[in-house]
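Office hours follow-up: a student asked to see two folded examples consecutively, so here they are.
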Amino acid sequence: MGRLKTRNETFKMYMRMKKMTLLASCLFVLAACDNGNSRKEAQVAQERDSLMRIIAEKDNELNDLMGTFNDVQEGFRRISEAEGRVAVANANPENASSKEVIRENMQFIQEMMAQNRSMIEKLQEQLKASGFKADKLAKAIEGLTAQLAEQQQRVQELEAQLAEKDIVIAQQTETISSLNSDVTSLTEENQSKSQKVSEQDKQLHAAWFVFGTKAELKEQKILQSGDVLKTTDFNMGYFTQIDIRQDKEIKLYSKSAKLLTSHPAGTYTLTKDVKDQYVLKIVNPEQFWSVSRYLVVQVK
């Protein structure tokens, strides 16, 4: 019992000394760090201020975007209200005051639709200039364009109803036709630009590959006198086009494979599948295709 008590007391003393040593070490580290704290704090404060300025600028850009977006939505609401007033007045077209209400509101609708069209174009420019990668906002703006086209259709139907009762003025007809033409032209222009960008993007990330036996490659003039793609008269239709961002694995369906075109070492691997046939795996597409966008593999 005496020995056990002594051991316990020794252990407790050892732990107290260990805690005191650890505390002393911590105090020493804190003292050493204190000298650098002031410089780090100044640097952190400077970086924080810079970041806050950037955040404030982006907030302002986003607020401008959302402000314009809300203005367009409000414009649609006011147009709908005007359409309602025209419908009510159209129920009693013989009344002189009803005719005046119809004229005034049809003119208002034309002005608001022209204003909305202008604001939608402004939204598109604001989003493009802001640099935001906001897919949802871009889709919302496309929705506004579609909503404008739908509202244009309703106005045309309303115009037809009023024309039957000889109360639509020629100026309104001309304005509606002009606005419809503008919307159609804008839609066609956007579709054309979108298609052009898509094609350019596709070509920018395009590559071509082919694999075949030595005899097949010679027959297609891909391999001539031991040189690959020596001339430009090879059969381009024998190649398969791929997107280098997506297509990173090519099955070669052969137990023997040799790359004839130049591609940096370490950017690809040749491994065998369960059928003991080679599969080319591109591990670094950007570097792999940096020398040539054509890949030729000789198989047996």
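And the second, which I mentioned at the end of office hours:
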Amino acid sequence: MKGFAGVIVALATLVAGCAGGVPAADITGAPEPAEAADYIIGPGDSLSVFVWGHPDLTTDVVVRPDGDISTPLVEDLTAAGKTPTKLARDVEQALAEYVRTPTVTVMVRNFVGEFQSQIRVVGQATQPQSLPYRNGMTLLDVMIAVGGLSEFAAGNKAQVVRKVDGEEQVIRVRINDLLNNGRMNQNIRMLPGDVLIIPESFF
């Protein structure tokens, strides 16, 4: 019975995969993003730095373009490229010169992330911008975040430019079909570092 149950599970998985309509463009061989990867702070992130028992040292800061932050008693401390926990330990070390056994917690309030962890949307979107990547993000999620297509967009000629193992891949996507006709086979999985290019329509 165990063997029979295993066959049933395998068949169910295969059917579910076919029913999902995974587009060929989405099968790129690119590694899946880590399910529980620690967030890496990047320029533009908004942070709350809590120094327990010292409200005068607790503050909200934005990571500068150079990747540094400044807090009370601590100037020009590198934040970009670190996890919130690592940054908290570094703030504690810097404060130890002024405060006995400081305890620090860093929370990320607004996420931007490192450059390679963003999804960039250029061209004829309503609001072209860089978006922080979220695990499981799809093309539809990206289009919702940028407000859809502009009036002059050639959505069915859009491309996702992706680097896999150091090589550039171009994935053609039909955004008009996805948004207007519900063609979910165009709703590909996005990956960190993807660039979505939406050209202008020429009449």
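Two things to take away from it. The chain has two domains: 46-110, 115-198. The helical segments are 2-19, 84-95, 139-145, 175-181.
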